[in-house]
Amino acid sequence: MFNKSHKIKVSKEFLGQRIDNFLMNYLKGIPRSKIYSIIRKGEVRVNGSRKKPLYKISEGDEIRIPPLNIDEKKELFIPENFIKLLKERIVYENQNYLIINKPSGVASHGGSGIKLGLIESVRNFGKLYRDCKLIHRLDKDTSGCQIIAKKQSFLRKCNEEIRLGRSYKEYIAIVNGRWPKTKTKVKSSILKTKNKSGEHKVISSSFGKESITNFEVLSLSRNYSKLRCELVTGRTHQIRLHVSQEGYPIVGDSKYGYRAIKNEQKKIKKFYLHSHVLKIPDLGVSFKVEEPEDFDILLKNDENF
Hints:
- It is built from 8 helices and 15 strands.
- It is an alpha+beta fold and 305 residues long.
- The chain folds into 3 domains: 6-65, Structural Genomics Hypothetical 15.5 Kd Protein In mrcA-pckA Intergenic Region, Chain A (Roll); 80-158, Pseudouridine synthase, CATH 3.30.2350.10; 165-303, Pseudouridine synthase.
- Strands 5, 6, 7, 8, 9, 10, 11, 12, 13, 14 and 15 form an 11-stranded mixed sheet that branches.
């Protein structure tokens, strides 16, 4: 598979897509690290020239794919009961996209040690789903509303709306402590970092990008707060960092929680963050997915402790 160099011509369908994303879709089964490597080394050529991963391709571009010398991978095995579970969690579907209530514990996509993700599973729903693509990502342990494009043209339109700030995302979270009702907004600059093992994390830094989250207290128990979290900006791990830096980390958050809180919550295995509302008004996208029942069960049990 892909053992010989060849050239492909870009059709109108892929106009404006980044070269790295285009190759990840075209070279299915090839590791992301390999794809970025061949771009970085200049082995991929567009109209005879080297390009960076962020280059946006145009209709008629001629892309040279180098020989990859990677044996074809064994077909990814996806259990039928898992496919059935995901199909049952489809909230809405039309010819352009589908909305799935993603379960907690399922990654949006494979990679970094995760063999099976949501998008790989959706592509195995049937012939009509082979070219499905993620429009946005949710953390593995975050549940809720996730939109998946069935057509490249719809993906491009969504990306443009999101880039222009014409989308709306709202989450439900349960955090440690009693969040002050007067605290309705958190604003900080967020910088992406990577530790020695290659794990990504974000920190507050003057060198980062501005991030803003609006908060509303929905209910309180003795030790927890249920919050509505509206993303004004959409940075990686934005909500998780904002509540943590204010001293109220999300229940079950092993990355941004505090050691003392972690020790008190050894019995709590669930991560309490849920994608509640997703809207892209100009494209007619408007969906709400209620949080799992165990969110309110946690608060009720805390009152009865």
